């Protein structure tokens, strides 16, 4: 996790519930599946989301390079390639002024707005309320169980020494929400076990 935000990329398309960004370079820690990110919406609030997919497209040139046995050419293409990686983000809430809200913002971010990682403090503040669980659990295209588990692991890591206690509280909330789906609950609890 991070004490200062890291720039991830720029918004390519957006809706109230999700958006897609493009980024030229994949850094070691960004983007990561389940990471908390934020983008400024046109009405001035920070839209908070979870990275749920990273797609690195191929093209005709890359298809030709996979058979090349020249590492310097491959390294050059990785570092200087103009085809962006596409990152999909599920919106789970927003921040207005200094308050976090676990429901959809009134407006999505605009095209070409910047996307940043959330700081550890922002992740801790947002995940004090588990209301975003329902948004993630009901997401259709976002592999919801994997996404929620990954976000909880990120949130536990942001808490330093309090991570285990946080995961226990999150597990209790999941048990309440999934009381009638024991198989799904068991799978989620296994994924968030420290």
Structure description:
This protein is of the alpha+beta class and 194 residues long. It has one domain (7-192). The chain is 36% helix and 25% strand. The protein has helices at 60-65, 71-80, 120-126, 132-137, 144-158, 163-177, 182-192, and strands spanning 7-14, 18-23, 36-40, 46-56, 85-96, 99-101, 114-117. A six-stranded antiparallel barrel has the order 1-2-5-4-3-7. A hairpin with a 2-residue loop joins strand 5 and strand 6. Helix 5 (144-158) runs parallel beside helix 7 (182-192). The two termini are 16 Å apart.
List keywords for this structure.
alpha+beta; 194 residues; 7 helices; 6-stranded antiparallel beta barrel
In DSSP terms (H or I, runs of 4 or more residues), the helix count works out at 7
Strand order of the largest sheet: 1-2-5-4-3-7
Unreliable residue runs: none
- Alpha-carbon distance between the termini? 16 Å
Number of domains: 1
Instruction: State the total count of DSSP E strands.
Output: 7
The average pLDDT is 87
């Amino acid at each position: 996790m991070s004490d200062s935000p890291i720039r991830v990329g720029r918004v390519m398309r957006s809706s109230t519930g999700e958006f897609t960004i493009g980024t030229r370079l994949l850094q070691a820690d960004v983007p990561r599946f389940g990471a908390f990110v934020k983008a400024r919406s046109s009405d001035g609030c920070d839209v908070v989301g979870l990275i749920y997919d990273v797609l690195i497209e191929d093209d005709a040139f890359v298809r030709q390079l996979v058979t090349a046995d020249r590492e310097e050419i491959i390294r050059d293409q990785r570092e200087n390639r103009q085809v962006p990686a596409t990152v999909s983000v599920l919106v789970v809430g927003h921040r207005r002024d200094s308050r976090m809200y676990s429901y959809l913002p009134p407006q999505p971010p605009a095209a070409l707005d910047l996307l940043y990682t959330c700081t550890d403090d922002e992740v801790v503040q947002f995940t004090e309320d588990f209301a975003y669980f329902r948004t993630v659990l009901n997401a259709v295209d976002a592999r919801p169980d994997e996404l929620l588990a990954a976000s909880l692991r990120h949130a536990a890591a942001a808490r330093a020494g309090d991570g285990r206690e946080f995961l226990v509280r999150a597990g209790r909330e999941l048990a309440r929400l999934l009381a009638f789906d024991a198989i799904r609950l068991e799978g989620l609890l296994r994924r968030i076990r420290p």
